[in-house]
Amino acid sequence: MILNANGTIYHLNLHPENIAGTIILVGDPQRVEKISKLFDHVEFMGQNREICTHTGFYKNRRLSVVSTGMGTDNIDIVVNELDALVNIDLNTRTIKPGHTSLNLIRLGTSGAIQPDLPLNAFILSEYGFGLDGLLHFYNVDEGIVETGLTKQVLEYFSWDYNVAKPYIIAADNGLLNLFDDKNIYRGITVTAPGFYGPQGRQLRIPLASPEFNKQLKEFRWQNKRILNYEMETSALYALSKILGHRALTVCLAIANRERREINQNYHSAIDDLIRLVLDKIVTIAE
């Protein structure tokens, strides 16, 4: 574990007192201020590289907003270091005797793959379907991976792709239940390790599996569908579950891949999602 000269954790550049127990994670550093400007009061602001942190109060609830940048590699850094801030004594570099569990809510954008999902749909990720391979670098206890769903995926795809074996992790059920709203779509989210080839986009390099997106769209498990692509959820869910934190992803569908539609002016829609998330998470029991 690396610390900076001022005693802060290395990449986040934070002291333990700089973060709240409930944290909104966003990819875009500029989205941090978009959220924190709705706070009643901001008590801390800090930034290191693409990781920007604002902590303050919204409706008397202390919250933090932290930007992660894009990709599961950044999630590996951010979640491990957030955990270290609350569960490791940075002075002695020893694990604290009591465990602190964080609420980690990712608020992001994604691309829908089902034709019936409208632009600007709010999507809750009941499961993160990881194509990134990050989990395989950790020694994982039983119960972390959704073995039944993962087995179904491997059989359905006759998995022989020359890429990482997929893993599937469930969202925290308590956080999921906060968003019990008929206007929010719920399903499986695919986390890809890139934006182009890993999500079936071809520019000048041919795809190894050009039919993969069609297979994803047609997959069904217990009446659940794969709804969208993004680049962070599987790692967030996996690391959170391993480390004893609660995690949930809620995304705005700014594109529909099947209909070849994209909303490049989605700012008012993301504002609506931000307010929804803020108003939901202040009801979490402390």
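The record above closes out task 2.4. Task 2.5 opens with a second protein, given below.
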Amino acid sequence: MKAMILAAGRGRRLRPLTDQRPKSLVEVGGRPLIEWHLLALARAGFEGVVINLAWHGAQIRAHVGDGSAFGIAVSYSDEGEHALDTGGGIAYALAMLGSDPFAVINADVLTDYPLESLLQHQPEAAHLVLVPNPAHNPEGDFALADGRVSTTGESRYTFAGIGVYHPELFAHHGQGKYRLIEALAPALAGERVTGELYEGLWIDVGTPARLELARRSCT
């Protein structure tokens, strides 16, 4: 299975740290965020990883290179100056990801989720990893019941930014700039999205306060 790291975002809430560098190169625990994911994907046994680029993308390419330093082959999907958002970015990289289901992880999360467990999933549409709702997202994103993810329900959790997707999910939606939820919506309505709850370490490193929390968790 191949994987994709979403690393094209601007990271506005982390300014000024992200004015001159991409969010994925912000350091946590002595190494850039993206390195944690590359090393974890290599340990898990993924075939290779595609990284999408936009804001200061050349810095990511220069730092990561071909991935040999991290034990995994890396290729790049360069979106130019204007990022295509989560859904559009994945769709733009489909030719590099192949015809089989692939894993995607947001570059701006710190987690000890066992990525090797994603290899067992071959979803009809998608498989999402959810986490208990953090303080910044108390209402959650999705409901989870009997291993199925939906938009309504009592037990609501937060999307971890980790999932496995069938390429048809995006091929049917088309190209352009759009959010992941827009591609997921028809599959969610058709009860074709599975999910799991992970209760280990997970931090969305999206603000200075959460960056500090992530750094403390690595000490």
